[in-house]
Design a protein that fits this description.
alpha/beta, 40% helix, NAD(P)-bd_dom_sf, oxidoreductase
């Protein structure tokens, strides 16, 4: 197993794919997001628990292909051979019915949830194919399997992730490169806070009376 991993995420971080029991020997990890200060906190947590892991943090907005290409091309030499790509950027805006969805929110959700995943995969996959090794993990959602009222555009983006994952699996079937998708249900993160534009009361009501998942439920293999 080679050693470099890139974990790409948006501002409303869900979790970090770090299964318990995973070997960190000589491992390197790249953390990318718009808010670098959030990643610095994650880096400190990893460094405390796994001091042998080398971590590179980089600012990245996955909505912009040119920025992705630049970040990947300018990675330090020891981080260029990326073996595991976690496409984890995802967000939702509002709870409007389709007839009321505005164009800006439509574009933002598709740019983040779909185009970002495609652009980053396009930047990383050629290297995996050249080395004949790699694993791409796309973070989907149960919303990509079952739509709901008020979530038409978000559900559409996650249906797109599902379709892209399946197509990419077929496209790479004759290679050693693996493609996986994780489809969580309701997870207690900043996701709902972003959806309701910072209204914490509305966000908290989403989880009222239920037991949502937390990031560790998904990131741990046990």
């Amino acid at each position: 197993m080679a050693e470099n991993e890139i974990d790409e995420r948006c501002d409303d971080d869900v979790f970090q794919i770090q299964p318990s029991g995973y070997s960190y020997d000589s491992k390197k990890e790249i953390l990318a997001a718009r808010r670098v200060e959030r990643l610095d906190a994650i880096r400190q947590t990893i460094a405390t628990k796994y001091p042998q892991v080398a971590i590179h943090v980089v600012a990245l907005d996955v909505r912009h292909k040119q920025q992705i290409d630049q970040v990947v091309s300018e990675l330090p030499e020891s981080y260029k051979h990326i073996d595991v790509l976690v496409n984890n950027a995802g967000m939702v805006l509002g709870l409007d019915h389709l007839v009321d969805v505005n164009e800006e929110e439509f574009d933002t959700m598709f740019a983040t949830n779909v185009k970002g995943l495609v652009f980053l995969t396009q930047a990383i996959l050629p290297g995996m194919k050249a080395r004949q090794t790699g694993h791409i993990i796309n973070i989907g959602s149960v919303a990509g399997k079952q739509s709901y009222p008020g979530g038409s555009i978000y559900c559409a983006t996650k249906h797109a992730v599902d379709a892209i994952t399946k197509a990419l699996t077929y496209e790479l079937v004759d290679t050693p490169i693996r493609v996986s998708q994780i489809c969580p249900g309701l997870v207690d993160t900043e996701f709902s806070t972003v959806r309701f534009r910072g209204d914490k009361e509305k966000a908290d009501n989403v989880y009222k009376g239920i037991q949502p998942l937390v990031g560790q439920d998904i990131g741990n293999e046990n």
